[in-house]
Amino acid sequence: MGSDKHSAGLLPTLRMDRVRTILTDTYPYPHEHSRHAIIAVVVGCLFFISSDNMHTLVEKLDNNIKWWSMYACLLGFFYFFSSPFIGKTIKPSYSNFSRWYIAWILVAALYHLPSFQSMGVDMRMNLSLFLSIYISSILFLLVFHIIFLGLWYLGLISRVAGRRPELLTILQNCAVISIACCVFYSHCGNRAMLRQRPLERKTFNWFSLWKKQERNTLLAKFLRMNELKDQVCSSWFAPVGSASDYPLLSKWVIYGELACSGSCPGSSDEISPIYSLWATFIGLYIANYVVQRSTGWALTHPLPVEEYEKLKKTQMKPDFLDMVPWYSGTSADLFKTVFDLLVSVTVFVGRFDMRMMQAAMSRVHEGDKQDDLFYDHLSEKQDFWFDFMADTGDGGNSSYTVARLLAQPSIRLARDDSVLTLPRGDLLLIGGDLAYPNPSAFTYERRLFCPFEYALQPPPWYKSEHIAANKPELPDGVSELKEYNGPQCFLIPGNHDWFDGLNTFMRYICHKSWLGGWFMPQKKSYFALQLPKRWWVFGLDLSLHADIDVYQFKFFSELIKNKVGENDSVIIMTHEPHWLLDWYWNSVSGENVSHLIRDYLKGRCKLRIAGDLHHYMRHSSVPSEGPAHVQHLLVNGCGGAFLHPTHVFSNFNKFYGNTYECKAAYPSFDDSSRIALGNILKFRKKNWQFDFIGGIIYFILVFSMFPQCKLDHILQEDSFSGHLRSFFGTVWDAFVYVLEHSFVSLAGVLLLLIAAFSFVPSKLSLKKRTIIGILHLFAHLSSALILMLLLELGLETCVRHKLLATSGYHSLYQWYRSVESEHFPDPTGLRARIEQWTFGLYPACIKYLMSAFDVPEVMAVTRSNICKEGMESLSRGGAVIYYASVFLYFWVFSTPVVSLVFGSYLYICINWLHLHFDEAFSSLRIANYKSFTRFHITRDGDLEVFTLAVDKVPKEWKLDPDWDGEPKHPQQLSHRRKYPSKWSASAGQQDPVNTVRVVDHFVIRKTEPESLSSNGAVSSNGSVNH
């Protein structure tokens, strides 16, 4: 019992995520994972890389700087291409495709280059051996699985065997087996025996290294690791014996090559150690598979069921979605977003408006009597608290961070020498953009409802698939809305919610009753709330027009006339902050909203709150002689979406003719400017799916420039400066050729120029947009031409040194067939029989698989033919093969560069020109810097405002032990619980409850009769800052 308790307490304290990633089974059967074998192979590789190999490498370094610089460039490009995928979960996705792609192209390039023999690695032999063993393993295991399924179909084995294996799992296991055999061959070879000492077997005892008398030689043996390697190869992995010892298998094995001093008469009779190792691995796989599928649960779950379920529960983690990849070239969601936006703009804007239908469907058509738009059930509460957030529904971690804070019964903050306690709001206001990138059932459920339901669970009787036909659907025992004392939620739609014409918003907000544990009585997309102490909230729906419609204006204007008193205070909630966006775009929007505030409220609008910009900023009016139509302007769009900059809006100071000053900004202007630097350093790491588009664009720009046949003037220069001068002169000539003679490349240049011009914000003049667009285009075109010339120079160098364009197509397969019989003797004709039984499929698969690694050879041979005989000598199929092989390498070289150029463009624009505030920060996908605003209507009628923020959002979560340990009652509402949220941060010090802080605090005084001027406008801002 003691040990059980100790282990149970120890597990949560350890950082077990990496261990669980390796040891936890994704599939029901452990044998379907090859991760353990991969680890074993890696350890073996590290062991067999001996100091002797490294010493030989140092001794045999080629003095020709040309080859080593080529290696450095090649490996550098491949590293920068693969760097975004390092450490990501292996799964069938674009990321996994890129890993296999980079491995294929890199190996195909390296095995054609010299100097690898100095490291003791025969790249060509290992590659061809790997492919041969890989095809053989796949063929053998496929036959085995077919036979095994046939036995299951006949009822001869357990029903558990009926589960088909994953094809990807078979391929992974075959790859691991092949790698293991190649590692063994690289260091031990395929030696059959030592003829000079046929009866003597040299023995070696590993444990002799640790004998007392030999401890002094331990370091010496380590420095002579190759001797230890030879002893291990000859003792541990010695051949299993002669084929004559196994008469039944003599015709079904491959033999080892002779390894003797001097000539070796006769042929080998020893079974190949490579074959023995391969057969051992295949036998283990088959035995493991048969045992697992025959016994089922017992071996796959060695723990008792109760302990297994308990362990599984402790390892549970929330399945949150990542931040939306806005620059993804492979995301179907983004293409759907663009399509929905085009449809919304062309179909709905000006033609059909859901707000018009809502007005037509209202039960009562007379202004302030519309009970589905006006709610006064909160007006009699005392000491009222409510919250505001906006722009949630992006990354799961960031959205849950804010939702977890909103759900806490109270937030305790250390302030000076006291503790500040902020109770949970009775009302939650959400200011639009509920899910990104487009409104759909999937995005609303996974990006909006999922985090909120984890933070505050809905009631037990709630069914997510049910529609609320008659809202409000109150809990049992509550007869009217004002009697319900749990948290409530009111929401307005943002521009992203309107991309489908408000359809998803109506289904999930207006026709459902619960957002997690927050009750939603709302029936329409806009509303008016009467709060205590003569405070009001008007939630306006701006649609895609950035303004309210005539029916909405009529409702609020009549409400102001009939309900809002002269001394009342109104909070206007919109999705877009007109004051900042109009200043930035040099435009005027929201005329109806302005008319409502200036001519109807007449100074009673104390505060405007909005989202859309994903940062926090507050501007307060400067006291002046003129009227202040709005005292405070507050933007807080940090509810979960990516971060927006603040320094771009640092110069804003005018709105409605009044002067405003910035009282708070989060993040600060300096931090915002520093964050923008990430576009240069992190653009590709954050937006690796941008490769798909960027690489294709660069290839189109230089398509007409392949091949470059006249490069002698560059290679024949004597000095480095001469090389550079000739190189850039050739780049300029290529640029002129694109403009004067090419068709495909010129078309690509013109299209990219149009795109670059259109990408520049329209707030600039036509002249400035043209200049910026041309400079942007020139940066990309120059980079593409330089990369094209570097690739051509590399090919030309290899051709001149006869490393490429020497063997033609299928060079690797032809070479392997020529040396196969020497290294892997087959006196019984096993290969010929396999070829006959497979109708030639076996050698054909090996041949064409090896041909995939001859891409550089194909490219060089075709390039040489074009340079000698002209492009007309190529057939259409030959041209397709040539340009496809060029694209495979050029795409790898270009993707890091196109991201660097584009990221640098965004950085220059955002920090120097204050342009692209949306594009430059959406690329960074920053989940940190999240906040919400908590309001407190005091007993005196003042409005106290706290903005709470979390600088760093946790990325790892665990089951909250307090939530799990708290007793649960079947009908208890979650807001009554002390610990309402299911997940807490894995590192306790990073939990949002512990890291939240106040970034802004101010008080808006209630309106007194004497504070109104004769024209009804407030003459001072009536606020106190803290």
From TrEMBL:
SUPFAM superfamilies: Metallo-dependent phosphatases (SSF56300). InterPro entries: Calcineurin-like_PHP, Metallo-depent_PP-like. Keywords: Membrane, Transmembrane, Transmembrane helix. Residues 388-588 form the Calcineurin-like phosphoesterase domain. The chain crosses the membrane at residues 37-55, 67-86, 98-116, 128-155, 167-188, 688-706, 734-759, 771-791, 880-908. Pfam families: Metallophos (PF00149). One of its GO terms (molecular function) is hydrolase activity. This is Calcineurin-like phosphoesterase domain-containing protein. It comes from Corchorus olitorius.
